[in-house]
Amino acid sequence: MSDKIVCFGEILWDVLPSGKQPGGAPFNVAVHLHQLGQSVDLISRVGDDDLGTELLDFIESKGLRTDYVQHGKTHLTGVVKANVDDSNEVTYKIVQPVAWDYIQYDATVEKLVEQAEVFVFGSLAARQAPTRETLYRLLEHANFKVFDVNMRPPHYHKEVVKYLLEKTNLVKMNHHELAEIMAWFGQETDRPTAMQWLATRFDLQAVCVTCGADGAMLWANNQLYRAPGVSVEVKDTIGSGDSFLAALLKGWLAGQEPGEMLRFACATGALVATHQGATPAFTETDVRELLAAQAV
């Protein structure tokens, strides 16, 4: 087993009023992991079109390999129309079906996942049967499974999310998603109670819930950890949750104290929110400086 992290799922273009930007949660997480010094690969699919070629070029420009990004001739590269009228609550219109709905299973991706230390996936990639079936098969070969819930209505199904929770070791979601999932089970929506219930019900090593400007909470080691929000001037929140997850995983793999990794993750998400777009360039030093400035 290598120390590599594999991210699985959608890569696409976010179409904003200011123009188009590369995106998709697994892609964003992969870019931020790479920027934080982690070894990472991406499994996805693009169309045989100009948008696909541009995406592949962008991925390589960020220092990532495209070896496991498949090329499809029958479906176009993914596009999402993002509404950023409210900078703190971006909404999305996600076109379907597109290339990343048809990620194929083969021996090369199976081997990649089998050898990786961590496998990161979300619920959006499971919206259509072809990619969902590939994901389900890969989960059987993954070592440590990280579920980035990322529920985008109407692109998720309750039963699929429940199934993915059954297969997960660490789950990350926002507070809205936590409340919705608890309602499915008729359970208490008080966040600490809900997180502990989820961890017990699905035998999870960790449950992480982001709370927007209020920071985040982490249930791990049978204990609740909290980190306050980091106050910044927000340009947009696209990619903030993805950078948060990347930073959290960096700390998790390094065996950091949970409270410390949570604070670092909150600062990383805040730093990305001070930029436009999902994948601005930054370093670990930039995050540490932002944290230090908050402490003054």
Task: Describe the model.
This protein has a single domain (5-295), classed as UDP-N-acetylmuramoyl-L-alanine:D-glutamate ligase. The N and C termini lie far apart (42 Å). Helix 1 (25-35) packs across helix 8, helix 8 (240-253) packs antiparallel against helix 9 (258-273) and helix 9 (258-273) crosses helix 10 (284-295). The protein has helices spanning 25-35, 50-61, 107-115, 129-139, 158-166, 175-184, 191-201, 240-253, 258-273, 284-295; strands at 5-8, 12-16, 19-23, 40-47, 69-72, 78-83, 91-94, 118-122, 144-148, 170-174, 206-210, 216-220, 223-227. It contains ten helices and 13 strands. A hairpin with a 2-residue loop joins strand 2 and strand 3 (19-23). A nine-stranded mixed beta sheet has the order 5-4-1-8-9-10-11-12-13, with helices on both faces. Strands 3-2-6-7 form a four-stranded mixed beta sheet. It is an alpha/beta fold. It is 39% helix and 22% strand. The chain is globular and about 50 Å long.
Kindly identify the CATH topology: UDP-N-acetylmuramoyl-L-alanine:D-glutamate ligase
Instruction: Please name the CATH architecture.
Output: 3-Layer(aba) Sandwich
Number of domains: 1
Radius of gyration: 18 Å
**Distance separating the two termini:** 42 Å
Query: Helix count, per DSSP?
Result: 10
CATH class: Alpha Beta
Strand composition percent: 15-25%
Mean pLDDT: 94
The CATH homologous superfamily name equals Ribokinase
How would you describe the shape? globular
- Poorly predicted runs are none
- What is the string of SSEs from the N terminus onward? EEEHEHEEEHEHEHEHHEEEHHH
Number of strands: 13
Oligomer: single chain
Biggest sheet overview: 9 strands, mixed
Structural class: alpha/beta
The spatial strand order of the largest sheet comes to 5-4-1-8-9-10-11-12-13
Helical residues, percent: 25-40%
